[in-house]
Amino acid sequence: MAYTKITREQIATYLNTTPKDKETWSIVGVGITDYGQSFNPQVETEKWIIHKNATSSLESYQIQGDVSQKCYFGDPVYDFVNNLRRTAGVGSAVETQILDIDLYDSTGEGELISYKATKYDCIVAITGYATGESPVIEYSIYYNGDPTIGTVTIADSVPTFTPEA
Predict the structure, then answer these.
(1) 64 touches 40 (CB < 8 A)
(2) Contact indicator for 95, 19 with CB cutoff of 8 Å
(3) pLDDT tens across 53-97, in order?
């Protein structure tokens, strides 16, 4: 079996930067050199008095992504997050959606290519804002609830998500 090495640019993350209006998917990446998800597994362990060893079960995940982004005014993701910082947004003001796309896992040809994708509700929480020589905004994205599994087609750099049937 042949293996294909996955490169970072084949994993795309988009944030809905207009959650109160409609879905406007903006790519997460301008000014960001690293992004990953921590799954934070929620494991329940129980040791019965009649057993020598404990039993563990995986109950759920608490997915979170931490971002350190150099500030680029005009980037829709930075502008969205910076507005949350300026307004000290909480509650529903920080709710949006995130879309993770596996660009290496596709079907179709030409303009009919679709990619496997996962969409989540999420919140964006500001964790820091450094205004030194090279300003940086830091925030965490907390994935909420169960994902919606589906596919994405991309036209003019804009993804369109279709949930699985």
Answers:
(1) yes
(2) yes
(3) 999 999 999 999 999 999 999 999 999 999 999 998 889 999 999
Tell me which amino acid residue 98 is.
I
- Looking at residue 93, its amino acid is A
HEC string for the chain: CCCCCCCHHHEEEEEECCCCCCCCEEECCCCECCCCEECCEEEEEECCCCCCCCEEEEEEECCEEEEEEECCCCCHHHHHHHHHHHHCCCHHHHEEEEEEEEEEEEECCHHHCEEEEEEEEEEEEEEEEECCCCCEEEEEEEEEEEEEEEEEEEECCEEEEEECC
* C-alpha pair distances (Å), 156 with each of 56, 104, 160: 47, 18, 11
Residue closest to 60 by CA, chosen among 38, 41, 35, 34: 41
pLDDT digits (tens, 9 = 90+) for 20-47: 888 999 999 999 999 999 999 999 999 9
| pTM for this prediction | 0.92
The label of the residue with tokens 């982004």 reads 69
